[in-house]
Amino acid sequence: MWETILSFHRLRDRRDVRLFGEWRTETRSRLNGETRLLGALIPARGYFPDFLTPAEGQYGWDVGLDALRGLRPERLRRELLLVGAGAGTGFGAAFGTPTPTRLREFIDGGTKHLPRLLGELRGYHRAAVEPYWSHIQAQIEAERAARGRALLDGGADELLASLPPMLRWRAPVLECEYPVDRDVRLRGRGLLLQPSFFCRRTAVTLHDPELPPVLVYPAAAQLASTTAGGEAARPAEEQRQRTLGKLVGHTRSVVLRAIGDGATTSELARRAGVSLASASQHACVMREAGLVTTLRHGNAVLHTVTPLGAALLKGGAVVS
Length: 320
Known about the structure:
Pfam families: HTH_20 (PF12840). It comes from Streptomyces lavendulae subsp. lavendulae. GO terms for molecular function: DNA binding; DNA-binding transcription factor activity. The chain is mainly alpha-helical. It has helices at about 1-10, 15-30, 35-40, 60-70, 75-85, 100-110, 115-130, 135-160, 220-225, 235-245, 250-260, 265-270, 275-290, 305-315; strands spanning about 165-170, 175, 190-195, 205, 215-220, 265, 290-295, 300-305. The strands form three sheets. The chain has a three-stranded mixed beta sheet. A three-stranded antiparallel beta sheet has the order 6-8-7, sandwiched between helices. The chain is globular.
């Protein structure tokens, strides 16, 4: 749900052409459905309703839609009014600004407009996110592997200190670059750290302080792909067909299996019984084929297997 909503921001943003330009072109060509209601609910800048990213979405797209379908009328109206007022957050629409017609119709109509919203969300998700899901998931899994390694190496302090530069750990406070000045107090509830492919520049959190605390932040692998001139998100099938032909031979099968839950280049060389240069070369080819994602972790480079790579291993498709 978060990726879908944040991608709607990226679709209307003209920046980051190297990473998102081709995705924007392809997505717009597939968007034959209606998105005007989404456009009213998700302004180019500022607050969008918390109900669009329910906590249940962590269990899957359909579960998230079911949670949205069961939204209480009073919460729907409250958050829609915040959209119309700019949420009082210091940016976006100002109080007293006329509410857009479509948004006013939704406020007045209440939950009877939810089926239309669900239809727009499904159509947009199919066009903008679903074709690229394997690529997005690979970036997120690489991020999770890197943060998990930091947690194992140095505990929570090391984990929080290893987050991207827009997040700064100064115990006991995690400082974030954010459009407005705001404090989020956990009150013993913990914090869900959620890396995102479509999140850019600043972290995102929920507006309602009573909801479970969540901090969505740009995945480091996605940031690295921008600075390194990496490809934008592409449909997995197209990317695989371009380079999968290079992936043959017993050694690469062994190297792919040796990555396991994540391995640095030196660990990979040791596990697979190959030289450091050979491990680096094989990892590079498999990365081009969409089977491996690489993320810098401190002074080392961490390789993780993508969903496609895992599927090939599970099916025994990588053989000599």
